[in-house]
Amino acid sequence: PLVTTTEMFKKAYEGGYAIGAFNVNNMEIVQGITEAASEEHAPVILQVSAGARKYARHAYLVKLVEAALMENDIPIALHLDHGADFDICKACIDGGFSSVMIDGSHHSFEDNIALTKKVVDYAHAHGVVVEGELGRLAGIEDAVNVSAEDASYTKPSEVEEFVTKTGVDSLAIAIGTSHGAFKFKPGQKPQLRFDILEEVSQRLPGFPIVLHGASSVNQEYVEMINKYGGEMPDAIGIPEEMLRQAARMAVCKINIDSDVRLAMTAAIRKHIVENPGHFDPRQYLSPARDAVKDLVKHKIVQVLGCSQKA
Ligand code: G3H
Ligand code: 13P
Ligand code: ZN
Ligand code: NA
């Protein structure tokens, strides 16, 4: 059966590593991720956004993850990414997820607390865990496009009250990461506010912290995309060393979506260009699935540190 993230996060916190939370939309992505995690004996979180749920539909995603559970003997959590309101969280709690995020970060502090608490009460009554968020990331958070000016770092002075009053199981914070493949302007030096992470963890001893917008946008994939007809100039992400540092600290969950998209797109573009006669989707989706698997293995071993932790 699916597991919640409780045990995963406890071990990750104590062991100074993080669990990968990868966004899933289709069979190839689910297979690529879970085969990689299985071969590395790593626990893994599969997460579904509102957009993914709309694209693939709830039942298909749940059944794909159930199939992955049948084939792989590792802890797998199924998580709602960026739940915008109580109703989508309830639908996922009732519909078989083991974890949900309620993203109240664009509301006032008081409204965020009230909304998050409502979700926590319902989730906990059903054995499901909840991730909340304080602070705003720049970039695209689902439908809401948060401009750099509207982005704001998490205020450490708010975290104890938020966690105590809501009862959340984990907390996403904003320390300079952002969603998407264009995280910094060209020439801008990537920086994260590790001082904020440190202060948050001192105020919440032992409490699992989540990092969104944490793709590294490996230039290997960007170059492949551009070489085979794509146009993604100046795509740039979070350096891996910064993620390793975060994983050694209180960060127990690192969210990765863009890197999976880039790996798949690079593999598909290359295949299509090199094999102009191919028209069977399995011919280009196989290398795409392999690319997801290679990427996830790299993350598990080189970035997250969760290999052999299942
Ligand atoms: O945080 C956003 C995730 O990358 C999901 O993106 O809403 O396009 O599925 P999406
Ligand atoms: P990236 O766009 O950096 O992969 O972030 C994904 C994410 O935070 C999903 O919630
Ligand atoms: Zn996110
Ligand atoms: Na950690």
TrEMBL record:
GO MF assignments: fructose-bisphosphate aldolase activity; zinc ion binding
Q: Which EC class is this protein assigned?
A: lyase
Q: Which Gene3D superfamilies match?
A: Aldolase class I (3.20.20.70)
Q: What is its EC number?
A: 4.1.2.13
Report the active site residues.
81
Enumerate the residues binding Zn(2+) 2.
103, 133
Cofactor(s) listed in the protein's UniProt record? Zn(2+)
Single biological process term from Gene Ontology: fructose 1,6-bisphosphate metabolic process
Q: Which family does it belong to?
A: Belongs to the class II fructose-bisphosphate aldolase family.
Q: Which NCBIfam families does this UniProt record tie to the protein?
A: cbbA (TIGR00167), fruc_bis_ald (TIGR01859)
* Function (record text): Catalyzes the aldol condensation of dihydroxyacetone phosphate (DHAP or glycerone-phosphate) with glyceraldehyde 3-phosphate (G3P) to form fructose 1,6-bisphosphate (FBP) in gluconeogenesis and the reverse reaction in glycolysis.
Name of the molecule in the record: Fructose-bisphosphate aldolase
Task: Supply the source organism for this entry.
Answer: Youxingia wuxianensis
